[in-house]
Specification:
- With 229 residues, the protein is an alpha/beta fold.
- The termini are far apart.
- The model has no long low-confidence stretch (mean pLDDT 87).
- Helix 1 (17-28) links the parallel strand 1 (8-13) and strand 2.
- The longest helix has 19 residues, at 206-224.
- It is built from ten helices and five strands.
- Helices cover 52% and strands 11% of the residues.
- It has helices at residues 17-28, 42-52, 68-78, 92-101, 114-125, 133-144, 161-171, 176-183, 187-200, 206-224; strands at 8-13, 33-39, 56-59, 84-88, 106-109.
- The protein has two domains: 8-141, Rossmann fold (3-Layer(aba) Sandwich), CATH 3.40.50; 154-224, Winged helix-like DNA-binding domain superfamily/Winged helix DNA-binding domain (Arc Repressor Mutant, subunit A, Orthogonal Bundle), CATH 1.10.10.10.
Length: 229
């Protein structure tokens, strides 16, 4: 009797229990995929990787504490080859390229049809990169027109990953002290990042930074079809 083919083990890292449950139900119905575990923040995820030895990860950008990009960088420092799919509610035009630069093997928005998640997982397991057609076209256009579009870049493109993370948390209503606690940074360090944000985004004061962050968060959520967190 021929042995049943082994299933690829998937670890889900997301701070929403409903999302984790929905992904588990979706994946466990497949003949070639199975969820081996779940985590809702970076440190639990790193422990799960060590103990469960997953074949691929699904990681959300927004986690409790350090975000998905921080987790991705930690994973890459330990294992350059572990496949990671970023699944996020955040605007792919801002986050997809950052995720790929940080070592992700794919990026998909949460409002995509569920079958796209399965397609993305299978492509990545075949050592391919998965992004939406929109992101692929944007990256190709930038490659073809390299050096000619610098004047048209958004100020958001000039933010570091940490600055973007701080901006996201401001937009979600976190205070400076809360951001410091979430990211395991000092209040002074967070204030320095806020100063960089005001300078790079040409904002005059903290009130304008707060307004910009909230408006940006609302636009991102509207674009993704998700309500505010």
């Amino acid at each position: 009797m021929q042995a049943a083919p082994s299933k690829a083990k998937v670890l889900i890292v997301d701070d929403h229990p409903i999302i984790r449950s929905g992904l588990t139900q979706l994946i466990d119905r497949e003949p070639d995929l199975a969820v081996c575990g779940e985590a809702q923040e970076m440190h639990t995820a790193l422990r799960a990787i060590n103990s469960l030895k997953p074949d691929i990860l699904i990681v959300d950008i927004s986690l409790n504490g350090p975000d998905g990009l921080d987790l991705l960088k930690n994973i890459r420092a330990r294992d350059p080859h572990l496949p990671v799919l970023i699944l996020s509610m955040h605007d792919e035009s801002i986050y997809a390229e950052r995720a790929l630069r940080a070592g992700a093997n794919g990026y998909i928005m949460k409002q995509e049809a569920t079958d796209r998640v399965l397609i993305a997982l299978r492509r990545i397991l075949k050592h391919e990169i998965y992004v939406s057609d929109r992101v692929a076209n944007k990256m190709l256009s930038q490659l073809v027109g390299a050096g000619s579009g610098a004047a048209n870049r958004s100020p958001m493109d000039g933010l570091s990953d940490r600055e973007l993370e701080v901006l996201r948390l401001i937009g979600e209503g976190h205070s400076t002290r809360e951001i410091a606690e979430d990211l395991h940074l000092s209040v002074k360090t967070v204030e320095t990042y806020q100063g960089h944000l005001k300078e790079k985004l040409r904002l005059r004061n903290s009130r304008e930074l707060m307004q910009f962050a909230v408006q940006w968060a609302v636009r991102s959520d509207s674009a993704s079809g998700n309500p505010r967190r």
